[in-house]
Amino acid sequence: MTASYLFDKGALCEELAQRNGFRKDLVETGAFTLLAYLRITKYGGPLVVYIEGDGSAWESRRQLSEDPTPRDPIMIELAAADPSKNVVYLARPGQYTMEGASSCSPSYWSNERFSETVVSAMSRAVDNMKREYGAKEISLVGYSGGGAIAVLVASRRSDVINIRTVAGNLDHEAVNNYHKTSRLEGSLNPIDFAAAIAKVPQHHFAGSSDKVVPPFIAQSFVKRSGYAGGDRVTIVEGATHSKGWSERWPELLAIPVN
């Protein structure tokens, strides 16, 4: 893997961010330095935090990637389409090192991607941005593994006013059983915290053609939370794990969060 290839992945996100009025920041958490892009227009208003997915964590089914920076930065596209006053894109540990984020052990984008260390660091990043911009409330939006992080972060906070997940890996044990792959030893499992966030308004979007995280994962998560209504999950017809989200995000974002 060449350095220019790594740079190109980061450059795509940078170009999309700049074109849509975001500025780059590096957020210190103690354990990691994380890349963020921010578009802040109302000091003190709620922060809408878009949490990146697992990115290019694996080169193949058995080969771990040297760099988990997303090849297709879906979340910056979704963040750019959000009309909220204060929108933040937050990358995951190990991503965008060519843009200034810190490197870390590959375990933090493999088995320990949802570990206590990672979740605490992501929550501290939210704390830092909340303090800097005078925010009192937080909305979380997570894609794929970022959906897992959104749930896990929300489960330990009292300032999260709503959660949205997109193709969210809300039960990595069930997902890995579905694919017949090894368990994520050292990671917290979001579904174990479903009941803890049951009262937080939330909506989970799943692609009807998603073969990576099938729709039953979101449905099982909501069922585990004890919520009886069927209006917390929307199956997006034709969407796969990575396709069909950006162009439809404005209409999906308009769906009320229960």
Summarize the SSE layout with pairings.
Layout (H helix, E strand, L loop, with lengths): L2 H17 L3 E6 L4 E8 L6 E5 L22 H7 L5 E5 L25 H17 L5 E6 L1 H10 L5 E7 L5 H8 L22 E6 L8 H10 L7 E4 L12 H5 L5
Parallel strand pairs: 3-4, 3-5, 5-6, 6-7, 7-8
Antiparallel strand pairs: 1-2, 2-4
Helix pairs in contact: 3-4
Summarize the structure.
The chain is 29% helix and 18% strand. It has helices spanning 3-19, 74-80, 116-132, 145-154, 172-179, 216-225, 249-253; strands at 23-28, 33-40, 47-51, 86-90, 138-143, 160-166, 202-207, 233-236. The chain has an eight-stranded mixed β-sheet, with helices on both faces.
Kindly list the characteristics that best describe this protein.
single chain; 258 residues; alpha/beta; eight-stranded mixed beta sheet; 7 helices
